[in-house]
UniProtKB/TrEMBL annotation:
Pfam families: DUF2461. It comes from Mucilaginibacter lutimaris. Transmembrane segments: none annotated. InterPro entries: CHP02453, UCP028451. This is DUF2461 domain-containing protein.
Amino acid sequence: MIEAKTLDFLKELVDNNNREWFQANKGRYDKARENMVEFAASVIEKLHKIDPTVSADLDPKKCVMRIYRDIRFSKNKTPYKNNFGISLPTLGSKLGGVEYYLQIQPGKSFIAGGYWMPEAAHLKAIRQEIDYNAADLKKIIDNKKFVKLFGDFRKQDQLKTTPKGYDADNENIDLLKLKSFIVAHQLKDKEVMAASAAQDIVDICSKLYPLNVFLKNAIA
């Protein structure tokens, strides 16, 4: 489970996002990160049983993302993220490919999955898979339990124009115009701090697993 001290550290970081405060509280950060690594290890162990493409050998230390922000090209010059992210890639995927992603942030935690902003070749392959096998995707995303957990899959970033190679009157144009193929479920603080948190999150992942399978098959 995520410890209350981890959330407390993140809450205080929001109001003290500077190097001086961070260095003075480095010990708290180290303990918070250790908590995240232990939690990631628990999630990986359980998730592998549901989705074998999430390797049981994933290094949880590498799955917990850096808290340091890259501010070189950002107007926001605060040096630290106000959350911890855990990226759980599927076999053959780089970070940011077809994956599960857990974000821990006070009041804004969530578990997500799918493929965010695919590279050009993968985007083309996914659209082709949708064009050929839209019924398979719609069976997943229009399932009532899926919609209740993750909302309307179609309501995410879309092209304003019709993608090259497809007609505007294509019956699945709303899916073909998508630029990302992700879903997310919000988590309350009490949920991530529960003793059953790792298993509860994996249970949610099991509901989005078919989406990841569809996407993996498309780019295989």
